[in-house]
Structures are given as structure tokens and as C-alpha cells.
Amino acid sequence: MMIRQLYISCLMVFLLHGFDLHGQGFTVSGTKLLDARGKAFIIKGVNMPVIWYLDKSPEALKKIAGLNANCARVVWSTSGKADQLDKVLQQCVELEIVPMVELHDATGSPKAEKLLETVSYYTREEVKAVLVKYEKYLLINLANEWGDYYVTPEYWKDSYATAVEMLRNAGISSTLVIDGPKWGQDMQPILQYGKALLDADPRKNILFSVHMYGFWNDAQKIETELQKAHDLSLPLIIGEFGFNFNNGNNNLNCKVDHALIIRKCNELGYGYLPWSWAGNDKNNAWLDISDWDKLTLWGKDIFEGPNGITATAKKASIFEKK
Fold first, then answer.
1. Could you tell me how many helices (H) and strands (E) the chain has, helices first?
2. Is 32 left (phi over 0), alpha (psi -120 to 50) or beta?
3. Beta strand spans in the chain (E)
4. For 68, which of 82, 197, 283, 310 could close a Cys bridge (C-beta 3.0–4.6 Å)?
5. How far apart are CA 154 and CA 144, in angstroms?
């Protein structure tokens, strides 16, 4: 009887003080992303191509943090070593920006096997140890833009359900970020099957992501589709987006109204991460937010505009001194 009473007393202490009995990282609740203290966190950061520029990334991350970004989507690869990843995540935490690790290897692949290769990487003993070490601060984007133009919504859902199950069985409890198919740009499967994927996750801890380029040139579509996701209580971010460069005469056929994306995200409490800090190839150089040293016009608009990141982003409460 005494043991039972002690158990009940301990449980009440946990509940009264709001401790998470299942882990200490980010979680989702309705449309909101909550940090380890249970406080709402709205992502306002940038994509940072770390794995391709390991030598330049430390200084770049300092600049990104100095501009008040609260999150960096860390481009990574299965070729990356665990100790390298550890250093990147440690620096992000020291700079008080939330790292979102994503694996780029499966980009555009139509095969579930390729998606599951990312799971195999995350569950390697030495990699998993790093992920668990930074669980309090970490978001895990399973695979960048997995799924080509021919992947069906059902195949997308079933493949990710398998991937999520494998990660949870391996003991990874972090918030899992899942991109829509069709190179990240198709939001319909998220609207159709997002709740089913959330319900299938034992942790109920999935954040969906859509990328906005040429598929999203219609301003009304941005308004209505984001509103639909919010009305369905789906946690969502815009994981990548571009802008109307050269009136759409660019390699991505992109003339997206990025100001509308930011305004609508602010209205709905959704986060966003424009692509990308620096280092894009010749065809994509128009998307460089900086030249590594100073901001481009695109970067100035993103950071210094009236609704820019510098003026509006708030750090996760986990970085506040108690």
C-alpha cells in the first residue's frame, strides 16, 4: 500500500509541474509546435547548406544567429559523420538557434527504400547517440523532398508511416518533420492524410512541411491551402520557399509572392524557412540570401523587411535563463 501511495504522489508531482514523462524535446499540439518547456515556438529561420560547406558553416551560423533567426534547417547527408553532426548541433545550441537536421540523399526519389535509408542513418548507433544528446533542442526532418511527381498520396502516407514506426521503435522521440511529395511542393497528401499519420505515430509528434516554388505562383492558393491546414489543426511549416525572380523566368518557374507567404504564416502562427543562406549553384544563385559575408537583396527583404525575421523572430524559451 505504501509503495502504491508513493507512486501516486510522484505521479502527481510530475503532472502538477508539467514534466514530460516521455522525453524532453519538442512536441506538437494542434497547429502549434511546443518546446521542451511547453511554450509555443514559431520557426523563423533559414536553410543552411552545412554538409556542402563544412568549413564555412561555423561563421555562417554565427551570422544567421546575429540576425535573430531562431532556427536553422541543417542540410545534411548520410555521408556526414556523427562527430561532425555533433559539432554542428552543439554550435546551434550555443548560438541559441534550434537545429532542424534534414537528409538530402532521398530528394525526388519515388522509392520507399530510399526514404528508409534515411531512417537507417538516423538509427546508426553513433548517430542516434548524437540525436538523443540534443533531443531537447532538435527537430528531425526525415528526408528532403522525398517523392517525385508520380508518387501517390497513399504511397507517400504508407511509406512515411513505416519510417516513423521504425524511428520510434529505435527510441527516437523528437518531433519528426515530413515534407510533402512532388519535390516538397504537394500539400494535398498532407491535407488528406496528415491526421492519419499523426494518429499512427505513438508520440503524436509530427510537423508537416511544404516547399513553395513554381507550384505556388497562385496567391489565392497560398491563402486557401494554408487556411485549410490550419482549419484541420495540422502543425505545418513552409520548409523552403523562393520569390518572384525575373518575373518567373528562372529555373524553378518561381514567381511566388513571398511577402504573402510570410504574412499568412504570421497570421496563422506557422513557421517558415526561406531557401537558402549561400552557396547555391549557378542556376539557383538567385536564391542566395547572402554572399557568405553580406545580405543580398533577397536576404535583406527576408531579414530586414517590415515583417522580417530580425524584427519578429522570438527564441525558443528553452534558451531563456531560469
1. 11, 10
2. beta
3. 27-29, 32-34, 46-48, 71-76, 98-103, 139-141, 175-179, 206-212, 236-241, 271-272
4. 310
5. 19
pTM (2 decimals)?
A: 0.92
Q: Give the span between the Cα atoms of 111 and 146, in whole angstroms.
A: 9
Has 240 been annotated as catalytic?
Answer: yes
**Contacting residues for 45 by C-beta, under 8 A, at least 6 apart:** 64, 69, 70, 71, 72, 73, 97, 98, 100, 271, 273, 309, 313
Q: Residue 176's beta-bridge partner residues?
A: 140, 206
Query: In this structure, are residues 44 and 312 in contact, taking their beta carbons and an 8 Å threshold?
Result: yes
Domains of the chain: 23-319 (3.20.20.80)
CB atoms under 10 Å from CB of 188, counted, come to 15
Cell of 197: 499519420
pLDDT digits (tens, 9 = 90+) for 118-143: 999 999 999 999 999 999 999 999 99
The residues, ordered by sequence, that sit 6+ positions from 227 with a Cβ below 8 Å of its Cβ are 264, 268
Q: How big is the chain, counted in residues?
A: 322
| From 240, 267, 304, 320, the catalytic residue | 240
Give residue-wise pLDDT tens across range 286-322: 999 999 999 999 999 999 988 999 999 999 999 998 7
Phi/psi of residue 197, nearest 5 degrees = -65, -40
Strand ranges across the sheet with 206-212: 46-48, 71-76, 98-103, 139-141, 175-179, 206-212, 236-241, 271-272
Catalytic residue among 102, 135, 145, 225: 145
